[in-house]
Amino acid sequence: MRESKGDKAFNITINFLVVVLIVLLVYPLYFVMIASFSNPDLTNEGKVWIVPKEFNFDGYKALFEDSRLWVGYRNTIIYTISGTLINLFCTLPAAYALSRKKFLGKRLIYNFMLFTMFFSGGLIPTYLLIKQLGFLDSIWALILPNAVSIWNLIIAKTYFRENIPEELADAAFIDGCSHFKFFLCIVLPLSSVIIIAVTLFYAVSHWNGFFNALIYISSQEKIPLQLFLRDILIQQQNVSVSPEVADTLRYTANLVQYAMIVVSSAPIIILYVFLQKYFVKGIMIGSVKG
Amino acid sequence: MKDKTRADDPPLLRRRIIRELNYNGQLYILLLPAILYFLVFCYFPMYGVQIAFKNFNPVLGIRGSKFVGLKHFIRFFNSYQFSVIIKNTLILSLYNIFAGFPIAIVLAIIINQIKGRRLKSFLQTVAFAPHFISIPAMVGIIIIMLAPDTGILYKLISYVIGKDPGVILGNPKVFSSIYVWSGIWQNMGWESIIYTAVLTSINPELYEAADIDGAGKFRKILSIDLPALMPTAITMLILNCGKMLSVGFEKVFLMQNSMNLSASEVISTYVYKVGLAGADFSYSTAINLFNSVINLIVLIAVNHFAKRTSEVSLW
Fold first, then answer.
1. Which terminus of chain B has a smaller tally of CB atoms within 10 A, N or C?
2. What Å distances lie between residue A39 and A44, A101, A125, A245, B157, CA to CA?
């Protein structure tokens, strides 16, 4: 097919926009990465643009010597794994049940859950509840208050409804299969795509979670990575490397900030790049239902 | 023969009902963890909202505390903070909706126009990636890049405007722009996925028909793509409007400093300060309740409006 003049101009515009977009999206992250390996004095003077200057690992060294990083990492891994397991335990069975065609009270239960999207008790009543339950400064305050995300519930429910035909269930039930057995032995193995997607969504939210820890966690040895990140980046605390000279301190402080961003974000970004299709799949399913 | 089936029927039927109940009974057990979660962590706090109308005293508890009616609400409406906070919240959220929403649509259209599959998936990968950066890391990047004298964006801005912009993050005038545009950078790819999904589901015959009519590419976007995107766009707009007064706490809180406070104090950060830092539980809850009720009203109103004008609605 021949292209008209207008279409040619249009294609050029699109290609130009694509290039601009890619640069705008990638460069900030790329810059943080090269800056984390460069001499911070040169970075601050604006001399680091395309490649690292005076390549070094000083920032990472200082960061890795700070025990709080490892404590934060360990805690975040624990919170992410246990939190995600609870999420799945609460979300998947409920999503399966709600995906079934008809049972007494289905509409009511679904609306009971949906309503929480539009109205909530808010910060203080939730805080009082957590306090009453004795969850302050404990892992439970981080993994229970968000055990079900409505969004993920809807995604899983939609997937089950559209991919596990009611006829298959009927056939299984005639053979004497129960809902438990059907869910465990047929639904779950057939739904690996959505299980991975939902798992990823939950895991990312735990990994990046900050608010609950800010409110409920007070002991230093229980803080997750994101709170440590806040201390380093935003409150500009220095790492505990005990340097004698103030200048070295400033030198590493700058570098550590870049390194910290890389160290905390890299696992999630890498996870995303490799498992991208599941993330996209999940959100596509969610968007169909709206 | 006939008698025989009749004789068998009632127990068979009863057995069937019992079996049906047995099966569906298990559904309730499968639902139980989620129901418990919503009851305890969502509905119980809703019950606790009543402290907005009381003087909460930890010793007396939620029920036992003294009822004071609308005292806390009136106090909030009369406080000098009220108009500032509402104004800041509305600016951030409306700016965010009306700048971010068209950009996500435009991005989806651009992605849809790319011919090479490699390039297409590369742009998508790159566009979604910032979404996975945590908010503390994001705010850290903003702070570093805008740092006076040393930040890379600071340098760019001083070069463009030709003078020293000062402490950019401390400037109340530009706070909303920093907040909104960094958010767009982070989330436009993610928000565009929904629109991309709609665009890929458009029937190709429509484009073929448009080709026969001699429509150019731009014309096709206007006449086919945009109308197809409308229902989804309206749904997203309704949902966003329902969150009008809920500017996310984390990012604003982390971006706040003493210099930009006049533009950066929003309802959620104020609720946090009054409630947890100030331990004024009832007052904080009242402000939060005010916020939730307004959100609910706006959501219902916008939904009603959308239903009447475009027949798209949430319910």
1. N
2. 9, 63, 49, 17, 23
Chain B, 72 to 91: residues with Cβ < 8 Å from chain A are none
HSE, CB side, 13 Å, CA atoms: give it for residue A51.
Answer: 2
Question: Does the residue A225 lie in any domain?
Answer: yes
Q: How far B288 CA lies from chain A's nearest CA (Å)?
A: 6
Q: Which of A162-166, A187-191, B262-266 has the lowest mean pLDDT?
A: A162-166
Cα separation, A262 vs A255, whole angstroms:
11
Check A233 against B49: CB less than 8 A apart: no
Please give the residue range of the domain that contains residue A146: 57-288
User: Is position A86 within any domain?
Assistant: yes
- The pLDDT tens digits of the residues spanning A34-78 come to 999 988 888 888 888 888 888 888 889 888 988 889 999 999 999
Q: Does the beta carbon of B215 lie under 8 angstroms from any beta carbon of chain A? A: no
The token duo for A91 is 């979300």
pLDDT at B1: 42
Cross-chain CB nearest to A125 (options B49, B149, B152): B49
Q: What's this model's pTM, rounded to 2 decimal places?
A: 0.89
Cα separation, A83 vs A128, whole angstroms = 21
**Phi and psi at residue B209, to the nearest 5°:** -60, -40
Does B124 reach chain A within 8 Å, measured CB to CB?
Answer: yes
- Structural domain count of chain A: 1
Q: What is the CATH number for A66?
A: 1.10.3720.10
Tell me whether residue A97 is in a domain: yes
Tens of pLDDT, residues A66-112: 888 999 999 999 999 999 999 999 999 999 999 988 788 889 999 99
Query: Mean of the pLDDT values across residues A238-250?
Result: 55
A136 CB-near residues (< 8 Å, 6+ apart): A130, A216, A218
Closest by CA to A194, choosing from A90, A284, A98, A74, is A284
Residue A29 falls inside a structural domain: no
Helix (H) or strand (E) holding B281: helix B281-310
B17 touches chain A (CB under 8 A): no
ipTM for the complex? Answer: 0.90
Q: Which two tokens stand for residue A24?
A: 């705008």
DSSP one-letter code for B257: -
pLDDT at position B2, please? 45
B260 Cβ contact partners less than 8 Å away, ≥ 6 residues apart? B169, B170, B171, B172, B175
> What tokens appear for B32 in the block?
């139980």
